[in-house]
Every structure is written in structure tokens, then in C-alpha cells.
Amino acid sequence: MSRALPTRVWAPTARGVELVTPTDGARSAMSPTGHGWWEGRALPEGTDYWFSPDGEGPFPDPRSRWQPHGVDGPSRMWTARDHDWVPSPDQEVLGGVIHEIHVATFTRGGTLTSAIERLDELVDLGVGTVELMPLAQFSGEFGWGYDGVDLFAVHRAYGGPDALVAFVDAAHARGLSVCLDVVLNHLGAWGNYLSRFGPYYTERHQTPWGPGFDLDGPDSHEQRRYLLDVCRHWLVDMHVDALRLDAVHAIHDDSDTHLLTELAQLLPGWEERTGRSLTLIAESDLNDVRMVRAPETGGVGMDAQWADDVHHALHVALTGETQGYYADFADPAALRRTLEDVFHHNGTWSSFRGRNWGAPVPHDLDRRRFVVYSQDHDQVGNRARGDRPSEHLTDAQLAGVAAVVLLGTFTPMLFQGEEWGTRTPFRFFADQETPERARMVREGRAAEFGAHGWEGEVPDPTSRGTLEDCVLDWSERSQPRCSAMLAWYRELISLRGRVPGVRSGRRQRAVRLGDVLVVVNAGVALVLDLAGHALPADVDPTAPATWADSPEGTPPGGLGPLLASFPTGDGGDAVRVFGWVDRADD
Prior knowledge:
Helices cover 24% and strands 23% of the residues.
């Protein structure tokens, strides 16, 4: 027999709230319990229901765990199961390899259940954490997920909450941690009924998506609690191991304790309760190391943050593209600066922003606190055609950038299919439930590209064909070039795991000699040609002349044996990986 679960909702300005059950059309009055909360009769699991404040609506539960009928339909009673989960693997998320996936395009099935079928391939590759793009219920059947409106619910097209339970268990059983992308800075435009229940938003703070959450007003406790409970739900109730917090620079909070800091302060208690290590990763555009500093030292308290500047510098060095925000990375020093010191804009002028931006990263700060990549959903999907680097770069160039990311001092992240050099695009797509909404999305996307200086025809984001064009073709891996690339990625990840010092998080050194890039980590030395040509035989990472233009001179250490190389196809090597005996502390 299904157990009965309480029904509760926060509606502080309502004079009355009714619980509505659509199967029988029954309406029952809910009782006020204080501080704006209302409680109704308990309902068995699996029961559909709505709330009607002051006779309006009815509307879905703002804390709905399951929206099987979409964002406008009734909620369904669901709770996390009581029996034992498969425990999380005993490993750190940071320092290992993260693999970002989008559920609807990761497999032809497009669900969390079908994604389980490919987890063994990630294990075989050497991945430690699988990162899911947002799962929160959004309007329409398909999209990227950053316009979710039911922040506690798993999108119905992905299989709903039971499918996530099964996915997390399957990942943990294979030794994989699970990271979930969570959006706390805004809700989507359609199906968002929060304001029908209470003063969740304030005109004091504006975001690119409209008014921001009221997190710092005199009566903002419940609004803050709402977002904190979203995080607790995924980490504690659903057993996810890490959260990637989207665009935290758009979370406006002028209170004494920022929402993110309060979240970080809650984490130890959740870890004690669950017996698991939990990780918070921020996507921040601020280039400010305070994001990963502890609160007691004046920091925000995040465990790590994405470092977009590394991607931008690599992209410009390999492709020569300098439109939009890439313009500043045409600076010849950008690549060395980002590989050594994370941020290119570290208090310097940003032409894209029209002001000085960022702050320096101390040399002794653990570099594993920065997640870097050569591909991700934004940097591929925000191109007009969603074209992958593999459409423009040679395999030798792809191999070189893979070595920089996977054998670097940071926490590396891959994007689905990158590991075999897929040419399957990843485009922006967003299904809409009415023609008018679809028109608005198409026009908005075109205007966004024009504002950023991108060129090219933008595929219709509301077309299912646009989604289907982006579904990974796993059969590609049997092609000779893809098979060779996959073997290279496996070799690099294996080296990352077994060569002492690579995962130390110590600051690395880099120098660029024309097209030749030399990067020295605590465990390896990389030499690669950015143009994918054969390396000169006399490039020596230990030679003082190599580091003549480096501000700090030759890195202290000695060259070890050749560990790996990637050929150009004409008898030379485009990439060489040597062991490195680090003597920085001698």
C-alpha cells in the first residue's frame, strides 16, 4: 500500500488555499500553520494534485518532485525511497576526470535509463564523475534545461525521479560519482508559477531573465530556504555527489551572508548525515579567487569553479577566431597566462566587458579547484551551427589540446563524444508548446547571435530535427580515426592516474615558441605543435633557451622518459609526453 504524504505550501499573502485533486475534482481547504505555510490532507504516493491560492489556478506545487503532465499539469506525490542506495564511490570529484553529458542527446533513447547503458564506456575511458546537464522540469519536451521551472522535479521526458534514482545507483555501482547542473539564478518564463504563491522575486535585482530572487530583503528567509532546499534535495534525498551551480554571478544577494556561502556552511551537516563527501562547483564569470576561498577567510566557500579563460585561450591559439569575447585572447601571452595562472583577465582590461576585470590567482592555490575543458555545452552549442572543434582541427591538433587538458594541473572535463573526436554537432534547441513561444525563441536566438558578432545561419531551435541532429552516433568509434583518438584519450587518462605528481594541483609552467607549446606539470612535460605539424627534433623542455622569455626562467626539474606520443601521419610527432622529475621544493 502506498503511504500517505503531507501536502504543504508556502503562500504568505493568500487569504486561503485549497488542495485540488483532479481525478475526482475535489477541493479541500488547507489550514495555516504559521509563517505563511499551509497544510492540507495527506495524499497517497502517486496521487495527482494542485494548489489553488485564493481561488486562482489551480497551479502545480512549487516544490513538486514529479510533473508527469508537464509544467502546467498537476503535480504527483513522490518521495525518495527508504531502502538502501548504492553508496557513493570513495573518491574525490576534484582532480579526477569529469564527463559532461546531455541526457536527450547522449543516447538515441534520450532518457536516464538509456544513458545507463553507456556508463561502462565512461568507466573504460577512465572517467571518475559523470556530470548531467540540468534535469529540472522545463516547458516542452526537449531543451538544454537551463529554463527549468520545477526545480525539485526530474524532467518527465528523461524518465522522472525514479529514473534518476536508478541512474545514480548504476553510476555508483560502477565507481562513478554523479554531478548535477543546477540553476539557482532564475526560472524559465513558461510554467513558472512561483509568483502566484508568494513574493519570490524583487525588482531591486535584475538578471538577463528578468527580476531576481529576493534573497536579501527583510522577509527573505523562505525565498532563501527554497533555493537551499533545492540543493539539499539533490544532494541528500537523491544522493547526487556534486552540484555544478550555473552562472552564480547572476545570483544577486547583498545580505551579510551570501546564499552560496550559506549553502557551503550547510554542506558539512549534510555530509555528516549522509556519510558522503559532497562537492560544490560554481560557474562564475567574475574571475575572482574569492569564489573558492573559505568563508572564514572572506571567501564564498565553493570547492571549485569553472575556468572559461583556459578554453578561450586554447581555442584562439588553435583556430585564430577572435570575434566576440575571444578578441582579448589574441594576445600572444594569453595561452601561457591561463595555463599557469588560470585567469587571463586578472585585473586587466576586458574589451568585451569594457572595464578591468578579475583578480590574480595566488601561485600556491590548489589548481584542482578549477575545472577546465576544450569543449563544453556552451562553447560548442553557442556557435551558430553547434560545430565541434573536430570539424576545423586536424586529429593531431585535437590530440594536442587533449593532452593539455587531461595532463594539466587543473580538474579536466570532457564533453560527450569529444573522446573519439565526434563531428556530431551540439546545437541550441528548445521545444515550445505554442507557435507564439516558438517564434519568440527563434527571434531571440537570432538576435543573440547578432549581438555577439557570430556569423552563419542559426538552425531552428524549436525543431525536433535540430535535436535529432545532435544525438551522438556511438558507431563512429569503430572508424579508424575515431578509434585512434579514443585510444589516445584512454592513454592520457591512464597517465593522469598513474604518474606521480600529475594530480598534485600544483601550479604548472608553460611557454610558447611560435606554434610549439611546452607545458611542465609536477609529473609530466608536454611538447606539442599547435598547428599539428611535426615537432622539431631539438625542442628540449629542459633547455634554458626554451624558457628565455619566461618571467621565471627554466622550471626546476629534469626530463624523464618518453611516455606517449601522437603522430602527424608523415612520420613525425605532433605531441610528445615526457615524465618530469619535479624539484620545485629542493
